[in-house]
C-alpha cells in the first residue's frame, strides 16, 4: 500500500477560474455598474499589454536565445494585506554562444529590483520591462552561470489576471492566484519569458500567513513554520517546465490524506 499526501490542487484551479469568470461577468453585464470605468480599465490593460509585447521585438528574442535557462528557483513572500510580493529568484543558465557578456530577462518595471548577484555580475539595468545583467567576463558556449535577482512590489495584471489578489466568493477568505499564459510570468517574477524555452526543473518556495496554504507546481517537499506568524511551503518540479506554467495559489485550502493500492 502506498500512502499519498495531496492538496486539492484541482479545486484550486477551479476556484481560481470561477473567481475570474464571476468577476469579469459581473463587470460586463451588471447594468448598475459603471461601464465607463470598466471600459477605461480594460483600455489601460490593453496599453500595458501592448507595451509588454513591444519588449518582444526580434532583437530581444535573439539576445535571449544566446543563453538557455536550466533551473529557476523562486522564493516569494506574499502579503495579502498590502497585496505585495517580495522575492528572490535564482537562475542557472548555460551560454549558447561564445563571449556572452550580458543577458536580457523579462520583468515588469512596475516591480522594483533591489539587487542582482551571482557569477561575475558587474551591473544591471531595469527599464522598459527588461532586466539586463552585465558580466565582467564573457561566457563561452556550454559554460554555466548563476544569477540571483532580489525584487518586490505590487504585481499589475495587463490582461486576464496574471497575478491576482482577491477573496473567495461569499467570504472574506483570501484567494490569491496566478495565470501567466502565454507570457505574463514577467509580471510577477524575473525570467526568460519565452514559451519555447523550458527549464529542466524548478523550485518554488512561497511564504504566507500561517492560516493560509500555498500550492504550486510539482511535489510538496517541506512546510516550515517560521515562528513569526508565517509558514513557507516548498514545492519542487522535476520535469521540464516553461515560464508561463509556473504558478501559485494561496487560500485556506483543505488538507487531505488518501491511499492508493496498485492492482495485483
TL;DR?
With 264 residues, the chain is α+β, with helices and mostly antiparallel strands. Helix content is 18%, strand content 46%.
What does this structure look like?
By secondary structure, the chain is an alpha+beta fold. It is 18% helix and 46% strand. It contains three helices and 18 strands. It has helices spanning 9-29, 35-54, 58-64, and strands spanning 2-7, 67-79, 84-95, 100-106, 112-118, 121-127, 130-139, 144-153, 163-167, 174-178, 198-199, 201-209, 213-215, 219-225, 230-237, 241-242, 249-251, 255-260. The strands form five sheets. It has a seven-stranded mixed β-sheet, with no helix packed on it. A four-stranded antiparallel β-sheet has the order 9-10-17-13, with helices on one face. Strands 4-7-6 form a three-stranded antiparallel β-sheet. A hairpin with a 4-residue loop joins strand 14 and strand 15 (230-237). The radius of gyration is 20 Å and the shape is globular. The N and C termini lie close together (11 Å).
